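Structure ticket #2291
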Amino acid sequence: HGKGHANPEDISNGDADAFRAYSVLPFFIAGGGILCSIIGTFFVSVKDNGNMNDLLWALRRGLIIASVLVIGMTFLVCHYFVGNGWSESQALAVFGCIVIGLVSGLIIGFATEYCTSFEYHPVQSIALSGLHGHAPVIIQGMGVGMLSTVVPVIVIVIAILSCTGLAGLYGVAIAGVGMLSTLGITLATDAYGPVADNAGGIAEMAELDSYVRDNTDALDALGNTTAATGKGFAIGSAVLTAVALMASFILTSQIEDGSIDIMDDVVIPGILIGAMLPFVFAALTMLSVRRGANEIMNEVEEQFSNREAVFARDNSYDAWSPDHARCVAIATKSAVLEMVLPGAMAVLVPVAVGFGLGAKALAGLLVGAISSGFLLAVTMANAGGAWDNAKKYVEAGHIPGHEKKSDLHKATVTGDTVGDPFKDTSGPSLNILIKLMSVVSLVFAPVFPAGPYEQVAISVIILVLLAIIATVMTCVIGEEKTYQKLEEETEMS
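Resolution: structure written out below.
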């Protein structure tokens, strides 16, 4: 750190007041951010018969006002610490990092809106691609999702470089806190999406007037965009937090001088292992969704088969009723069981690499996981939201001659079906993976050897344990019934 820069290590020089200021500042930001978010919600309103742009700006207004209030609040807090442990230059440096984090989150949010709202070209291009079939919808959606990583990556890179220059690694960490300071309102807009979606479902099941469903569809489309925006904030802050945790891991571990040579024998293998983990984790969660959905579809099919049997017996459906609880139980059981293997992998693999290949390899693993996890999470969240809103764009009648149940609509429904596990399961789970592996690595950092192969036996034991968990879970969540049913249908045909 240069002279005058914020330095949390001032405590080592006996400056307890400065260290106390660094320690309590995140709590002030989080607490004040809650109040600012509550105030921001009072500015969220929209006029009657508003279009999608009006709905977007209604939520933007609340978020922007909350952000401005947070900036004012943090300036006062940082100014308070001047003379109470900080110099004026230290206070300004930390304040600058908080503003950088907050502005970075807003930019990522606005870029996400552009990629996932059907007011803009990316979603419209996905809808129009459906004129040529189902596959072009998938291809266009994946392309939009991949391109949507450009702005978040550039913003995070600039944020890390700027905050490191201002306040070192503490600046990077406090920027992550600043990005999440308006979590109260961003999380509310994220949760708003499923509420609007379920309201539309209730309206359809209750056979309410068509204008009710039209209104809930518009709100649901907005919810898809705001959900993607919330996920952008979450993954951006996760990267900043993980970078700070990784730096703490390197300083806490037995690595000499706290530096790593990229050409060390085990660093690049560690990076490759880390880059692989988000893909494996995302694959496991996506396959879990497919298996759970398959079980529910089989259950529904069986219930309808029983319904026809009752009608054939009684010439009436009165004696039959749907078993909703059974479907909910299947979904709940699947959700719990299917997370055992991904969770075990996220905790055990960093420990196995740390004992087997050493702390340097584990540092490489964290670099690879942060890099690929960030890009994959943004791609999946934005592609999923864009696919969903492409369907909503068609359903709203924006493409003449192609309404609900048309071939174009069916193509966009295929994209929406693919996008649901992307945006609701695999994408959001990756920021948890990144932070969990970083925290686990930091906790065990003091016991990992600096060099490779010193405690391979422990690593082998951990990997064997992971293999046992994978084997047991494969047996527990197997699909023997599905395969047996397919064999019976094949024999009958």
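Closing remark: The chain is about 80% helix and 0% strand.
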